[in-house]
Amino acid sequence: MSTPEHSPLGKHTAYADRYDPSLLFPIPRQAKRDEIGVSEPLPFQGVDIWNAYELSWLDMHGKPVAAVAEFHVPAHSPNIIESKSFKLYLNGFAQEPLANAAALSALLQHDLSRAAGAPVMVHIHAPRTAQHSFADLAGESIDGLPVKIDDYGPPKADYLRTDKNADVVEETLVSDLLRSNCPVTGQPDWGSVQIAYRGSPIDREGLLRYLVSFRTHNEFHEQCVERIFVDVMARCAPERLSVYARYTRRGGLDINPFRSTEKTQPENLRGARQ
């Protein structure tokens, strides 16, 4: 069954060192989308950007090659790929002889697209030429607000509100206080989140309380970002909205979901905690 409980998460695992696409464990997105009232057509566009920092294989002379990889999984894909299975799959190339990076890229694109159920974009870079931009998410931080908080979950959309009598604004707000937990192991996932919108001004204290209320919530990265997007749209009704989260890496992988009302692609920034 393709549920988190049946994935490799939280289980003793033998680390394969040869190529094995069966290690990838897809999980359907729709079950969690049903919880937040999301169905086709999707109310957002977007992508899940993965960065892999522990990728290696052997050249045809047996010499190891190291690389950094970037993967773009479209939000409209029917499945997410469970992160530990992704790590195990990538680790399987460690002793696999391959002609070159292009051969590896073709395998990765085929296998990941099959698991996700939609085309996955793959970029492989030599470590010293990786094209990451080092910068934190742009926007005005709300973390310094003098807010008393005593609610750490589950997420409370009721905290979200706007001043409907104020002039429409276009602004970008950021917080480094996003924390949620793996739904199987309970391990914490730490992240930064950017909320860019045009509409009635969102109450910043309420937004901060709302984001902190994810602190004990158990849900995958992609699901948390979609929940934030849906809650902000429902409670604040902005004309335009984009939600982008950058999570710290685990097991050599970071996951960075982006959801937006606009046809746009986020920059793959690498923040201070990544």
TrEMBL record:
Residues 15-124 form the NADPH-dependent 7-cyano-7-deazaguanine reductase N-terminal domain. It comes from the Bacteria. It is found in: Cytoplasm. It holds the Pfam family QueF_N. The keyword Iron-sulfur does not apply. Keywords: Cytoplasm, NADP, Oxidoreductase, Queuosine biosynthesis. One of its GO terms (molecular function) is preQ1 synthase activity. It catalyses: 7-aminomethyl-7-carbaguanine + 2 NADP(+) = 7-cyano-7-carbaguanine + 2 NADPH + 3 H(+). Residues 255-274 are annotated as: Disordered. InterPro entries: GTP-CH-I_C/QueF, NADPH_dep_7-cyano-7-deazaG_red, QueF, QueF_N, QueF_type2. One of its GO terms (cellular component) is cytoplasm. GO terms for biological process: tRNA queuosine(34) biosynthetic process. Coiled coil: none annotated. Its main location: cytoplasm. Substrate binds at I81, E82, S83, H221, E222. Its EC number is 1.7.1.13. It is an enzyme of class 1 (oxidoreductase). Pathway: tRNA modification; tRNA-queuosine biosynthesis. The active site is at C182 (thioimide intermediate), D189 (proton donor). Gene3D superfamilies: 3.30.1130.10. Belongs to the GTP cyclohydrolase I family. QueF type 2 subfamily. Catalyzes the NADPH-dependent reduction of 7-cyano-7-deazaguanine (preQ0) to 7-aminomethyl-7-deazaguanine (preQ1). HAMAP family: QueF_type2 (MF_00817). Homodimer. This is NADPH-dependent 7-cyano-7-deazaguanine reductase. It comes from Dyella psychrodurans.
